[in-house]
Write a structure and sequence with these properties.
461 residues; alpha/beta; Rossmann fold; eight-stranded mixed β-sheet; 20 strands; 23% strand; globular
Length: 461
């Protein structure tokens, strides 16, 4: 791109920013939904200004609203509340005084959702403009559920509050998105002419399932001439891009990078931070419950308490850390199909005494933990670095077929040499035992989930 083209692009982006600024403020004035999102976004600032005791009262008020609605309109919960002795009938009011009271409620699993699908829906669902959604089924266990605009507003306001917290304005709409769900973005590719692209578009999208060296090279050139307000993408896709940039000594300076969708390991974070030379944040959420938490690299996760109430169920069988366990979420904005104490399938750890406002880090999906014969568990994602160090690998998948059988599926143009294979097997043997066997399978592609993710770690036990 010559100097004149760069000047033209700069003018276009400045004009776009002015347009975004005015359209945002006009939208807040004229559109009811925009006003509601803006109001709930401002609630986060108000919430952060409260003392710990007042925060608890604020959350309890929201939880009691959800519990009372569920008791009166959701058959599945009405029965549970009566069985627990919380109420005599669905006409009674619920007013819990402590967050710990929720511990009495059973955990909601994907299996229970399937078995009680009708009873978990509000009896007012026909009047609430509900729509059906589903998780990607990345572990082979898919969840289907209903949501509506109230849920969307809760999630959007949480995300906007997050952007505001990290220094971005609501009209910061010039972003790069590396995403994989066709339902969200279709299957876009990178623009051939970036100037023409910005005449008709506000940002740049790339399908995360369509990343090869040619796309990485093209994207690197775009990153050298466009300073995005922020870059957001699957951690796996950002890692691939970052590794390409660092390997080819390409100089890039961006503003903010936001990793999401899949677990961000320390190795990934270091590579990404080095490539983009800017602040890195990890945004954690799911299709079932929306925004859950966010963290700056190497800092605690801050929970979006006005969107989800989060509990961590202590797990004393973890291999490395006693302060870890399952993440349970209660979405506070979805009344058409309440998910209360929902086992999302992920794990997290915390330091010291757990509180309801932040935790240490996401440690992976429940299915990404390998199991040992003695009952202990090993976070499979902690072993990712062994594979990521192999430059010849494009993608990989590690599958624990049994306690003493590990399969490696490899997508690579060249076979890995025997010395490297032996080094990896030695590390796994020290963890799983000397009797552990290994299978190496070279394949053309790692299958994607319906949400466009590649699952790197699977345990079949």
């Amino acid at each position: 791109m010559n100097i004149l083209d760069k000047k033209i692009l700069s003018v276009i982006l400045k004009l776009k920013r002015i347009l975004f600024f005015f359209s945002y403020h006009v939208g807040v004035k004229l559109k009811t939904r925009n006003r509601l999102v803006n109001k709930k976004t401002c609630e986060y600032e108000f919430f952060e200004s409260l003392s710990s005791d007042l925060k608890t009262e604020f959350i309890l008020e929201k939880i009691n609203l959800l519990l009372n609605y569920a008791n009166k309109h959701v058959a599945y919960y009405s029965k549970i509340f009566v069985d627990l002795g919380w109420v005599d009938s669905k006409d009674c009011d619920i007013n819990i005084k402590s967050l710990r009271k929720l511990n009495e409620l059973p955990i909601l699993t994907k299996k229970l959702i399937r078995e009680n699908f009708k009873d978990l829906q509000s009896d007012e669902i026909e009047n609430l403009n509900a729509y059906k959604n589903s998780s990607g089924g990345s572990t082979g266990e898919k969840a289907v559920f209903f949501q509506n605009d109230s849920y969307k507003i809760g999630h959007t306001s949480a995300y906007n509050a997050f952007l505001k917290k990290i220094g971005l304005k609501p009209w910061s709409k010039n972003f790069l998105l590396l995403w994989g769900s066709p339902d969200d973005i279709g299957k876009p590719t990178l623009p051939k002419n970036i100037i023409k692209h910005y005449l008709f578009n506000n940002h740049v999208l790339l399908n995360a399932s369509d990343i090869d060296d040619a796309q990485l090279e093209k994207l690197s050139r775009i990153l050298q001439v466009v300073s995005f307000d922020y870059i957001r993408g699957y951690s796996q896709s950002l890692f691939l891009l970052a590794r390409y940039i660092n390997k080819n000594n390409i100089h890039i300076k961006q503003n903010i990078v936001i990793s999401t969708a899949t677990n961000l390991t320390n190795e990934m974070a270091i590579e990404i931070s080095q490539a983009f030379n800017c602040e890195l944040y990890d945004f954690y959420g799911s299709r079932e419950v929306g925004a859950i938490s966010y963290s700056k690299f190497d800092q605690n996760n801050n929970i979006f308490c006005l969107n989800n109430f989060v509990e961590l169920l202590q797990d004393y069988d973890s291999y490395n850390d006693l302060n870890s366990g399952k993440i349970l979420t209660t979405n506070l904005n979805n009344f058409v199909m309440p998910l209360i104490r929902y086992d999302i399938g992920d794990n997290a750890s915390w330091r010291g005494k757990f509180n309801y406002y932040n935790f240490d880090k996401i440690t992976g999906r429940s299915s990404s933990f390998f199991k040992l014969k003695n009952g202990k568990r090993v976070d499979g994602l902690s072993l990712n670095h062994l594979m990521n160090e192999l430059d010849e690998i494009q993608y990989f998948q590690i599958i624990q077929e049994d306690y003493d059988l590990i399969k490696f599926k490899i997508v690579s143009d060249n076979k890995i040499n025997s010395v490297k294979i032996s080094n990896i097997e030695n590390v796994f043997s020290r963890i799983f035992g000397e009797t552990c066997s290994f299978l190496w399978e070279y394949i053309d592609e790692i299958p994607l989930t319906s949400s466009g993710k590649r699952i790197y770690i699977i345990s079949k036990i």
